[in-house]
UniProtKB/TrEMBL annotation:
Subcellular location: Cytoplasm
Protein name as catalogued: Probable transcriptional regulatory protein STHERM_c11330
Residues in TACO1/YebC-like N-terminal domain copies: 5-76
Keyword vocabulary terms for this entry: Cytoplasm, DNA-binding, Transcription, Transcription regulation
Pfam families, per the entry: TACO1_YebC_N, Transcrip_reg
NCBIfam families: PRK00110.1, PRK12378.1, YebC/PmpR family DNA-binding transcriptional regulator
Single GO biological process annotation from the record: regulation of DNA-templated transcription
Organism: Winmispira thermophila (strain ATCC 49972 / DSM 6192 / RI 19.B1) (Spirochaeta thermophila)
GO MF term list: DNA binding
Length: 246
Protein backbone atom coordinates (compact mmCIF):
# COMPACT_ATOMS: atom_id res chain seq x y z
CA UNK A 1 0.00 0.00 0.00
CA UNK A 2 1.29 3.46 -0.84
CA UNK A 3 2.14 6.19 1.62
CA UNK A 4 -0.75 8.57 2.15
CA UNK A 5 -0.59 12.31 1.59
CA UNK A 6 -2.42 14.84 3.72
CA UNK A 7 -3.98 16.03 0.48
CA UNK A 8 -7.02 13.75 0.81
CA UNK A 9 -7.66 15.11 4.30
CA UNK A 10 -7.58 18.69 3.06
CA UNK A 11 -9.87 17.88 0.11
CA UNK A 12 -12.22 16.05 2.46
CA UNK A 13 -12.49 19.02 4.83
CA UNK A 14 -12.76 21.51 1.98
CA UNK A 15 -15.59 19.46 0.45
CA UNK A 16 -17.41 19.48 3.78
CA UNK A 17 -17.06 23.27 4.01
CA UNK A 18 -18.25 23.74 0.43
CA UNK A 19 -21.24 21.50 1.08
CA UNK A 20 -22.25 23.62 4.06
CA UNK A 21 -22.03 26.76 1.95
CA UNK A 22 -24.09 25.17 -0.82
CA UNK A 23 -21.34 26.04 -3.29
CA UNK A 24 -20.83 22.42 -4.27
CA UNK A 25 -24.37 22.19 -5.72
CA UNK A 26 -23.60 24.77 -8.40
CA UNK A 27 -20.57 22.83 -9.61
CA UNK A 28 -22.40 19.49 -9.50
CA UNK A 29 -25.35 20.85 -11.49
CA UNK A 30 -22.92 22.00 -14.20
CA UNK A 31 -21.21 18.60 -14.31
CA UNK A 32 -24.51 16.70 -14.50
CA UNK A 33 -25.80 18.97 -17.27
CA UNK A 34 -22.63 18.63 -19.37
CA UNK A 35 -22.51 14.86 -18.80
CA UNK A 36 -26.13 14.56 -19.97
CA UNK A 37 -25.49 16.80 -22.97
CA UNK A 38 -22.43 14.86 -24.16
CA UNK A 39 -23.57 11.31 -23.36
CA UNK A 40 -27.35 11.37 -23.04
CA UNK A 41 -29.71 11.58 -20.08
CA UNK A 42 -29.81 7.86 -19.25
CA UNK A 43 -27.38 7.13 -16.38
CA UNK A 44 -27.32 3.42 -17.27
CA UNK A 45 -25.84 4.21 -20.67
CA UNK A 46 -23.71 7.18 -19.58
CA UNK A 47 -20.83 6.40 -17.14
CA UNK A 48 -19.90 10.06 -16.69
CA UNK A 49 -23.48 10.93 -15.77
CA UNK A 50 -23.64 8.00 -13.33
CA UNK A 51 -20.49 9.27 -11.60
CA UNK A 52 -21.82 12.83 -11.45
CA UNK A 53 -25.08 11.60 -9.91
CA UNK A 54 -23.11 9.57 -7.35
CA UNK A 55 -21.25 12.72 -6.31
CA UNK A 56 -24.50 14.68 -6.14
CA UNK A 57 -26.14 12.06 -3.93
CA UNK A 58 -23.06 11.96 -1.68
CA UNK A 59 -23.45 15.74 -1.27
CA UNK A 60 -27.14 15.24 -0.36
CA UNK A 61 -28.40 17.07 -3.43
CA UNK A 62 -32.21 16.75 -3.70
CA UNK A 63 -33.45 14.35 -6.37
CA UNK A 64 -35.42 17.09 -8.14
CA UNK A 65 -32.24 19.17 -8.54
CA UNK A 66 -30.48 16.22 -10.18
CA UNK A 67 -33.41 15.57 -12.52
CA UNK A 68 -33.61 19.26 -13.47
CA UNK A 69 -29.88 19.36 -14.24
CA UNK A 70 -30.21 16.30 -16.50
CA UNK A 71 -33.12 17.91 -18.37
CA UNK A 72 -31.08 21.09 -18.86
CA UNK A 73 -28.32 18.98 -20.37
CA UNK A 74 -30.62 17.09 -22.74
CA UNK A 75 -32.41 20.28 -23.78
CA UNK A 76 -35.77 19.45 -22.18
CA UNK A 77 -35.29 22.56 -20.03
CA UNK A 78 -33.51 25.76 -20.97
CA UNK A 79 -29.99 26.05 -19.59
CA UNK A 80 -26.58 27.58 -20.23
CA UNK A 81 -24.31 25.98 -22.82
CA UNK A 82 -21.12 25.15 -20.94
CA UNK A 83 -17.74 24.52 -22.55
CA UNK A 84 -15.12 22.28 -20.94
CA UNK A 85 -11.65 23.80 -20.58
CA UNK A 86 -8.49 22.40 -19.00
CA UNK A 87 -5.69 24.74 -17.93
CA UNK A 88 -2.21 23.53 -17.05
CA UNK A 89 -0.20 25.67 -14.66
CA UNK A 90 2.68 25.94 -12.23
CA UNK A 91 2.31 27.07 -8.64
CA UNK A 92 4.93 28.33 -6.17
CA UNK A 93 7.90 25.97 -5.93
CA UNK A 94 7.22 24.54 -9.38
CA UNK A 95 4.20 22.54 -8.19
CA UNK A 96 2.16 21.20 -11.13
CA UNK A 97 -1.51 22.19 -11.25
CA UNK A 98 -4.33 21.11 -13.56
CA UNK A 99 -7.50 23.22 -13.50
CA UNK A 100 -10.69 21.77 -14.98
CA UNK A 101 -13.43 24.29 -15.73
CA UNK A 102 -16.94 24.47 -17.19
CA UNK A 103 -17.85 27.89 -18.50
CA UNK A 104 -20.34 29.79 -20.63
CA UNK A 105 -17.69 32.46 -21.33
CA UNK A 106 -14.19 31.19 -22.17
CA UNK A 107 -12.60 34.64 -22.27
CA UNK A 108 -13.89 35.53 -18.81
CA UNK A 109 -12.73 32.26 -17.28
CA UNK A 110 -9.27 32.42 -18.88
CA UNK A 111 -8.81 35.97 -17.61
CA UNK A 112 -9.94 35.09 -14.09
CA UNK A 113 -7.78 31.95 -13.89
CA UNK A 114 -4.74 33.87 -15.15
CA UNK A 115 -5.37 36.63 -12.60
CA UNK A 116 -5.69 34.17 -9.70
CA UNK A 117 -2.49 32.38 -10.69
CA UNK A 118 -0.55 35.64 -11.02
CA UNK A 119 -1.85 36.99 -7.70
CA UNK A 120 -0.75 33.85 -5.83
CA UNK A 121 2.68 33.31 -7.41
CA UNK A 122 1.63 30.85 -10.12
CA UNK A 123 1.71 30.96 -13.90
CA UNK A 124 -0.27 29.48 -16.77
CA UNK A 125 1.62 26.89 -18.82
CA UNK A 126 1.36 25.48 -22.31
CA UNK A 127 -0.93 22.56 -23.13
CA UNK A 128 0.82 19.34 -22.16
CA UNK A 129 3.35 20.94 -19.82
CA UNK A 130 2.15 19.08 -16.70
CA UNK A 131 -0.67 16.74 -17.79
CA UNK A 132 1.82 13.91 -18.42
CA UNK A 133 2.48 13.84 -14.66
CA UNK A 134 -1.10 12.77 -13.88
CA UNK A 135 -3.34 9.78 -14.56
CA UNK A 136 -7.10 9.41 -14.23
CA UNK A 137 -7.99 7.29 -11.23
CA UNK A 138 -11.12 6.42 -9.34
CA UNK A 139 -10.93 7.94 -5.85
CA UNK A 140 -13.19 6.88 -2.97
CA UNK A 141 -12.66 8.25 0.54
CA UNK A 142 -13.90 7.04 3.91
CA UNK A 143 -13.93 8.52 7.41
CA UNK A 144 -11.11 6.82 9.33
CA UNK A 145 -12.91 7.42 12.62
CA UNK A 146 -15.73 5.14 11.44
CA UNK A 147 -13.71 2.33 9.84
CA UNK A 148 -10.25 0.82 10.23
CA UNK A 149 -7.83 0.79 7.34
CA UNK A 150 -7.65 -3.01 7.51
CA UNK A 151 -11.44 -3.29 7.11
CA UNK A 152 -11.40 -1.09 4.01
CA UNK A 153 -8.28 -2.76 2.55
CA UNK A 154 -9.83 -6.22 2.69
CA UNK A 155 -13.13 -5.14 1.14
CA UNK A 156 -11.58 -2.78 -1.42
CA UNK A 157 -9.01 -5.20 -2.78
CA UNK A 158 -11.65 -7.93 -2.98
CA UNK A 159 -13.80 -5.52 -5.03
CA UNK A 160 -10.90 -4.79 -7.41
CA UNK A 161 -9.23 -1.64 -6.00
CA UNK A 162 -5.60 -0.85 -6.86
CA UNK A 163 -4.48 0.80 -3.63
CA UNK A 164 -5.63 1.82 -0.14
CA UNK A 165 -3.94 4.30 2.20
CA UNK A 166 -4.77 6.34 5.30
CA UNK A 167 -3.46 9.25 7.34
CA UNK A 168 -5.59 8.49 10.39
CA UNK A 169 -8.43 10.83 9.39
CA UNK A 170 -9.28 9.79 5.85
CA UNK A 171 -8.96 6.39 4.18
CA UNK A 172 -8.33 6.72 0.44
CA UNK A 173 -9.16 3.98 -2.08
CA UNK A 174 -7.70 4.23 -5.60
CA UNK A 175 -9.08 2.30 -8.56
CA UNK A 176 -8.64 2.06 -12.29
CA UNK A 177 -11.31 4.29 -13.90
CA UNK A 178 -12.83 1.24 -15.62
CA UNK A 179 -13.42 -0.52 -12.29
CA UNK A 180 -14.40 2.57 -10.27
CA UNK A 181 -18.13 1.87 -10.20
CA UNK A 182 -17.62 -1.82 -9.44
CA UNK A 183 -15.37 -1.02 -6.45
CA UNK A 184 -17.68 1.72 -5.20
CA UNK A 185 -20.68 -0.58 -5.44
CA UNK A 186 -18.80 -3.48 -3.83
CA UNK A 187 -17.83 -1.37 -0.82
CA UNK A 188 -21.35 0.05 -0.49
CA UNK A 189 -22.87 -3.43 -0.57
CA UNK A 190 -20.57 -4.44 2.29
CA UNK A 191 -21.99 -1.60 4.37
CA UNK A 192 -19.22 0.99 4.02
CA UNK A 193 -20.51 4.55 3.57
CA UNK A 194 -18.09 6.65 1.54
CA UNK A 195 -17.46 10.36 2.02
CA UNK A 196 -16.53 11.16 -1.59
CA UNK A 197 -16.46 9.13 -4.81
CA UNK A 198 -15.12 10.53 -8.08
CA UNK A 199 -12.82 10.08 -11.05
CA UNK A 200 -9.81 12.30 -10.35
CA UNK A 201 -6.44 13.21 -11.81
CA UNK A 202 -3.86 11.63 -9.50
CA UNK A 203 -0.13 12.41 -9.84
CA UNK A 204 2.31 9.56 -10.50
CA UNK A 205 4.71 11.23 -8.06
CA UNK A 206 4.48 14.19 -5.71
CA UNK A 207 6.80 17.14 -5.23
CA UNK A 208 7.93 18.12 -1.73
CA UNK A 209 8.23 21.79 -0.80
CA UNK A 210 8.85 23.64 2.46
CA UNK A 211 6.02 24.68 4.78
CA UNK A 212 5.92 28.31 3.60
CA UNK A 213 5.72 27.33 -0.07
CA UNK A 214 3.09 24.66 0.66
CA UNK A 215 0.90 27.24 2.40
CA UNK A 216 1.17 29.53 -0.66
CA UNK A 217 0.16 26.67 -2.96
CA UNK A 218 -2.83 25.83 -0.76
CA UNK A 219 -3.99 29.47 -0.85
CA UNK A 220 -3.68 29.41 -4.65
CA UNK A 221 -5.68 26.19 -4.91
CA UNK A 222 -8.37 27.53 -2.58
CA UNK A 223 -8.66 30.72 -4.65
CA UNK A 224 -8.99 28.68 -7.85
CA UNK A 225 -11.62 26.37 -6.34
CA UNK A 226 -13.62 29.36 -5.13
CA UNK A 227 -14.04 30.49 -8.73
CA UNK A 228 -17.53 29.53 -9.93
CA UNK A 229 -16.26 28.24 -13.30
CA UNK A 230 -13.60 25.94 -11.83
CA UNK A 231 -14.83 22.39 -11.29
CA UNK A 232 -11.70 20.79 -9.87
CA UNK A 233 -8.03 21.45 -9.17
CA UNK A 234 -5.44 18.67 -9.19
CA UNK A 235 -1.86 19.04 -7.99
CA UNK A 236 1.27 17.00 -7.34
CA UNK A 237 1.93 18.82 -4.07
CA UNK A 238 3.20 16.70 -1.18
CA UNK A 239 2.41 18.47 2.07
CA UNK A 240 5.27 18.66 4.58
CA UNK A 241 4.83 16.92 7.94
CA UNK A 242 5.12 20.20 9.86
CA UNK A 243 2.09 21.68 8.10
CA UNK A 244 -1.04 21.52 10.25
CA UNK A 245 -4.29 20.72 8.44
CA UNK A 246 -6.97 22.99 9.87
Amino acid sequence: MSGHSKWATIRHKKAAMDAKRGKVFTKLIKEISVAARTGGGDPEANPRLRTAILKAKAANMPKENIERAIKKGTGELEGADYTEIVYEAYGPGGVAIIIEALTDNKNRTASEVRHILSKHGGSLGETGCVSYLFKKRGLITFDATKYTEDEIIEAALEAGAEDVSSDGEVIEVLTDPSSFEEVQQGLTEKGFEYETAEISLIPDARITVDKETAEKVLKLIEALEDNDDVQSVSTNLELPDDLTVE
